[in-house]
């Protein structure tokens, strides 16, 4: 069974500072993918970054980077130079690489990030 | 990036009526679409996986006769909430996976359903 844990229900960060959102996962699969999505108050889900279990380099996308520590089964999201528009819910998710149902995602409980001016 | 649309964005209906929600991939072909439900301040819960031309695969606890899913083409999947009740009120989000890009799902903007 898969499990995604986000231990921080809410976080504050000062504008222009960096922030790390935690995510740990549990899987027995060797092949899997990890995702981070942003959900603003409007409700849409915005894809931020992806890390494959076999990727040796940590994924980066602009101000977003994923601190992938495979042995610890953690995939923390780092947002550098926070902006007011970063205030939103952030979800960590995992794809089961061997799933025959089409790569469904399992989501963590989410972290609400609030950026202070 | 790929675009997924949902229609309607909001719907209010009376108890006992049926509501259809459409999910469309606008600029790619989606071999697989997923339907999620999200309660206020909660995470997304997968309801079902829909593959084009075949029956949907429902998650445990999701009533397939209650939530009818049709994936008739590579760009359209529909979710019909039949005989809706107030407890069906929720935020429903679809996502679509492009056939060639296994690692990414693109989400629709969601549909807020309120059943009175």
Record field, number of beta strands of chain B: 11
How many helix segments of chain A? 0
* Structural class by sheet pairing and helices of chain A: mainly beta
Work out the helicity level of chain B: under 10%
Radius of gyration of chain A: 14 Å
State the helix count of chain B. 0
Largest interface: A-B, 23 and 27 residues
Q: What's the helix-strand series of chain A?
A: EEEEEEEEEEEE
Summarize the model shown.
The complex is a heterodimer of chains A (117) and B (116). Chain A has 117 residues and is an all-beta fold.
How would you describe what is shown here?
- The complex is a heterodimer of chains A (117) and B (116).
- Chain A is mainly β.
- Chain A is built from no helices and 12 strands.
- Chain A has strands at residues 3-5, 10-14, 19-21, 24-26, 32-39, 46-52, 60-61, 64-69, 74-79, 88-96, 105-107, 111-116.
- In chain A, the strands form 3 sheets. In chain A, strands 2, 5, 6, 10, 11 and 12 form a 6-stranded mixed beta sheet that branches. A 4-stranded antiparallel beta sheet of chain A has the order 3-9-8-7, with no helix packed on it. Chain A has a two-stranded antiparallel ribbon with strand order 1-4.
- The mean pLDDT of chain A is 91.
- By secondary structure, chain B is mainly β.
- In chain B, 0% of the residues lie in helices and 55% in strands.
- Chain B is built from no helices and 11 strands.
- In chain B, strand 5 and strand 6 form a beta hairpin.
- The radius of gyration of chain B is 13 Å and the shape is globular.
């Amino acid at each position: 069974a898969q499990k995604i844990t986000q231990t921080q229900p809410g976080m504050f960060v000062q504008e222009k500072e960096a922030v790390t959102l935690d995510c740990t996962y549990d899987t027995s699969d060797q092949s899997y993918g990890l995702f981070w999505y942003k959900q603003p108050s409007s409700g849409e889900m915005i894809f931020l970054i992806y890390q494959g279990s076999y990727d040796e380099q940590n994924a980066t996308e602009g101000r977003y980077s994923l601190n992938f520590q495979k042995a610890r089964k953690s995939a923390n999201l780092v947002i550098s130079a926070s902006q007011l528009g970063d205030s939103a819910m952030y979800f960590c998710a995992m794809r089961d690489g061997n799933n025959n149902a089409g790569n469904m995602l399992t989501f963590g409980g989410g972290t609400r990030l609030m950026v202070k001016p | 990036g790929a675009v997924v649309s949902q229609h309607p964005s909001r719907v209010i209906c009376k108890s006992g009526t049926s509501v259809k929600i459409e999910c469309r991939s606008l600029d790619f072909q989606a071999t697989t679409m997923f339907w999620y439900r999200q309660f206020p301040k909660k995470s997304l819960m997968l309801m079902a996986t829909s593959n084009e031309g075949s029956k949907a695969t429902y998650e445990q606890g999701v009533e397939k006769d209650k939530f009818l899913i049709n994936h008739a083409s590579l760009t359209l999947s529909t979710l019909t909430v039949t005989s809706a009740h107030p407890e069906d009120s929720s935020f429903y989000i679809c996502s679509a996976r492009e056939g060639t890009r296994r690692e990414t799902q693109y989400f629709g903007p969601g549909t807020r359903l309120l059943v009175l």
